[in-house]
Amino acid sequence: MDRSMSIDTIRAMNERVGHHFFEPAAMRFFGSRVSQCAAELPDHAGWLFVTSEQRDHNSPRLYTVRKCAPDGKVGTVGDFQQYATSAQAWRAIAKIVAEAEQAALIRDAANAGVAEADEAEIIRRHGTPEQRQAYGLEKGD
After folding, report:
1. d(C-alpha 17, C-alpha 71), whole Å
2. Disulfide check for 47: which of 13, 38, 53, 127 has CB 3.0–4.6 Å away?
3. Residue 140 domain-assigned?
4. Is residue 108 part of a domain?
5. How many domains is the chain partitioned into structurally?
6. Based on the number of CB atoms within 10 Å of its own CB, is 31 exposed (0-12), middle (13-18) or buried (19 or more)?
7. Using CA atoms, how far apart are residues 2 and 102, in angstroms rounded to an integer?
8. What letter does residue 137 receive in the DSSP assignment?
């Protein structure tokens, strides 16, 4: 299932609510570039995308993970210019999305009255190593 959205759609959402994140003057001021697509978070919680900023030609281009909320507001996830490469920022997005999907799966199981043993099976199959360790399903370091 494709869970991506174009930046043009996000840009239009942001403009509709009267925000200026994507305005050319703001983009020029920060030396910003924006990825062409965004990854959707579960439960319609928004979309994650990458921007890069370079203050001047002597500064390195650094990357930031951004979130567009369903109402069109854009914010920073983590720290501004946290990543040295685009690939690092996209790996962070993949991890955030995977963790959000796992949390939604566990929440939905709990809401459906799934027994604790079934929840442990969900964690065993879909959880992070840390979650599996917390359930005693994986040995720690």
Report:
1. 7
2. 38
3. no
4. yes
5. 1
6. middle
7. 18
8. S
Whether 31 contacts 54, CB under 8 Å: yes
Residue 45 CB contacts under 8 Å (≥ 6 apart), including other chains = 69, 70, 100
In order along its 141 residues, the chain shows pLDDT tens digits of 346 678 999 999 999 999 999 999 989 988 999 999 899 898 778 999 999 999 888 999 999 999 999 999 999 999 999 999 999 999 999 999 888 887 777 676 666 665 555 666 666 666 767 766 666 666 655
Q: If you count them, how many residues does the chain have?
A: 141
Residue 62 near residue 77, CB atoms below 8 Å? no
Other beta carbons within 10 Å of 105? 17
Q: Are strands 33-34 and 74-77 parallel, antiparallel or unpaired?
A: unpaired
**Helix, strand, coil share (%) of the chain residues, nearest 5:** 45, 20, 35
Beta pairing class for 47-53 and 37-40: antiparallel
Q: Which domain holds residue 119?
A: 4-134
